[in-house]
Amino acid sequence: MDDATTSASDDEDNEFYDAQEEGGSVTLQEDSSFILNIPVTTHHNHRRNSNDATGSSSEGEEGNSETQQVLVVAENLDNMDVTDRISVNSSQALTPTLLSNQSKVVRKRRTRVPDKPNYPLNLWSIIKNCIGKDLSKIPMPVNFNEPLSMLQRLTEDFEYAEILDKAAQAKDTCEQLAYVTAFTVSSYSTTSNRTGKPFNPLLGETYECDRTEDLGWRCINEQVSHHPPMAAQYCEGRGWRCWQEFTMTSKFRGKYIQIVPLGYTHVEFPATGNKYTWRKVTTTVHNIIVGRLWVDNHGDMEIFGEGSARGVKCHLKYLPYSYFTRDTQRRVKGVVMDSGNQVKWVINGTWDSKIEIAPVTSTSGSMENPVYKTGNYKTAWTRRMPPPDSDKYYNFTLLACQLNEPEPNVAPTDSRLRPDQRLMEDGKWNESNQEKLRLEECQRARRRQREAEAETAAAEGRPYPPYEPIWFGKEKEEGTDNLVHVYKGSYWDAKTKQDWSKCPTIF
């Protein structure tokens, strides 16, 4: 079944066709049984240098290692879609709810942003000079953007953080990993109809999102490197904490843009010491020149258990969009295996709609070609669709509308205070483009100053300290020689004291 699919990005003759309409992919009952090729790898083979682009997930990696083919057969299809009794797909998940120990009124947040104005732009006049280049190094007008920074866009990974709340309650490690897997898929749901480019954060730019009162989590992000662009993020919720170092490579290939994420994401459940690590899959934006823009996510994702969960792992496959398959489009399928490489849970669904999970009830077949029978599937995640008129304002979800809402007492480096982004949200795109050029030139001037100071120091034979982020510090990653950015733990104390003396002036 895997071999029957062909990535549209590899088929030049099909680039001009449109993908199916929004909401068109659903998990069909006949898709509940499937074949999956699992790479036979040893633990920690996923560890590569975080700047190694070859370490990213892609559909091309499957041929690089030995694989085992497994067959998953679902039973009791009449009762296949069983919603978990502790529901994680409530449409009310963004509605403020007071915890029992709270007495103050939760802040009322906005539900939309101003409509997107109609600014015509000659697309080809700009992108014809971008072919084959890294898009992060090319100045682009805000006409391509959405009024959010990449730091804010990364925060959208937690739109369905209630799945991690559920995972924290799981007693069985493999079941917990099944819910973590559903959470990793949920972060792609908005990409099906969001084609605007986030603002590239300035070096030292930060973004905080404190939703402890209503959603039970808060996170802090910081742009820790400019070349290569890199963001560090730390989030803590109900019984879990999650952190990532995000960077990527992006290339424009004429008809499509391919985005390959680098760096790893980690989630830990302190009560048990269970920890899981993964890297995001490849995203391709199609029809850059002709036709309607559409996005595909594709590749293999390996989620590895560490700490108390060492040895447990999940292999997840994002099938590339294909015009020649009878399979459900935007399909995701995978298995959770215990430390003995036995499949214990099955993952099935689509990255733009919902994910279902099912326990394995029996195993048959040979060791080389095992057959796993599952019990009833239950829904681990269902997408909350954006408001019906969201096409007027960048196809934002409710959470996305709230990310750039002005808020008092944040750091002076916070994305909400970035003037070009605010002007764009207000519909003043010409002024926004002027302000964007000013901010970028100021950033280049700061970089030139640092380079000149470094040259002077070298000529005088004295060391020159490299740039250091404010809220994250470099530490050697456990089990590897990689240096990664780790949260220092001081941001929220500084906010309480309103002590922003360490913050640079970047706006």
UniProtKB/TrEMBL annotation:
Keyword set includes Kinase: no
Subcellular location: Membrane
Assigned keywords, A-Z: Lipid transport, Lipid-binding, Membrane, Phosphoprotein, Transport
Ranges of compositional bias, category Acidic residues: 1-21
Region Disordered: start-end pairs: 1-67
Main location: membrane
Biased composition (Polar residues): 26-42
MF term (GO), any: sterol binding
Keyword Protein biosynthesis: no
Any one Gene Ontology BP term: lipid transport
GO cellular component: cytosol; perinuclear endoplasmic reticulum; plasma membrane
Protein's name in the database: Oxysterol-binding protein
Organism whose genome encodes this protein: Anopheles maculatus
